[in-house]
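<instruction>
Derive structure tokens from the sequence

<record> Sequence and structure tokens follow
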Amino acid sequence: MIRLATTFAALALAACATDPATPTTDRWQPEPYVQLDHPDWARDAVLYPLNTRQFTAEGTFAAAELELDRLADLGVDIIWLMPIHPIGEKNRKGTLGSPYSVKDYYGVNPEFGTLDDLKSFIDAAHARGMHVILDWVANHTAWDNPLVEQHPHWYERDWDGDFMPTRWWDWSDIIDLDYSNPELRAYMAAALRYWVEEVGVDGYRADVAGYIPLDFWEEVRADLETIKPVFMLGEFDQRDIHARAFDASYAWEWKNTMHAIGKGEARADALFGYYSTNESVWPHDAYRMTYTSNHDQNSWDAAAPDFYGPAYESAIVLSFVGEGLPLIYNGQEAYNTKQLEFFEKDPIAWRDHPIEDLFRSLIDLKTATTALHNGAAGARMVPVVNTSPEDVFSFTRLDANGGVFVVMNLSSTARTARFTDGPYAGSYREHFSGEALTISNSTELSLPAWSYRVFVRQEG
């Protein structure tokens, strides 16, 4: 009888060990999706793409260097220099050509100055606490890049055996490289290493990053990190690139949604889909670049004020206070309304404009408010339910240090809103007006068309 009881007890223990209701947990511990370490200086960073050709009347590194005090005062953290390499002449577009048609990965475009001029610009930026990344064009070269003659087998071929511009695009001034070739990969990795190790750049913006095998970028990131911490922005909109290669990627859906709202083709609740996917699909520590302009959008679509219409200022504000990595394209702070020529000299018309104060104020707020920092260094957006959800977009971003409660009327009609759910109740100071306000479920806000309110949580 004792032996039988012992047998039953052993069977019971075995059953418990395999009971699906009580599994062991060690093998199911989650791993962070993002395996790379962001540079410390990127955690509250604001990006500033600089189009050297159009940035100053001279169009040189030396002239741009004279503007660094202004950019530092604005609060810029990372300057992204559009491609600085010599430009191909064969099949060139326009008079000066596209900077994305690279003739020499180790050279400097004489239109912009010398290598020493570039080094001086980078050193001066570093002295002001800013960092500099280069725009890198790894997918293709100019037709007359020496690699074409030296290593023709490094290039992809069309159906008839000819060199091949990227299919489906009107990029007739370039031809595609073939990353199935390990020699090409070694060459490109060495070139990327050169500019970090020898010239002092702090990382890269990778043009059409998704057109190049991800394993190449992952190896490059690991290699560059042996020199110093780097920042990598990939022109792509896919979470996979964040695991081991890129700190940041493009939030194309965000930009398209804000454009549709400004044009009256969507309402504020169209943002729900983007932010739901952002939270449920993308890793928190992925820096998704929420930009309101860049060189492509400006030159080929419209200048930002026209692209977003009456939603322009709201889009700027949301790019800073919502989750994402904000960007200011050169000239936005002067309220540039011109589409800059891409293949010709077409300098920005600089002027004083109140929108510069908006950018400066938002940068100050982002820097001072830890909840607004990038990726996992900042807080998640938590939706606040309001009584006009189709037109009024409201949320909080809060952490132990405080945070913000944001309310935006993204419509052409004045709205009033009360709040019915979410962690919004508390004492605040409105960021732009300085007004103190206690918000509860009885508070009703009157919101003019296309207006925004950013309430900063008051602690203690």
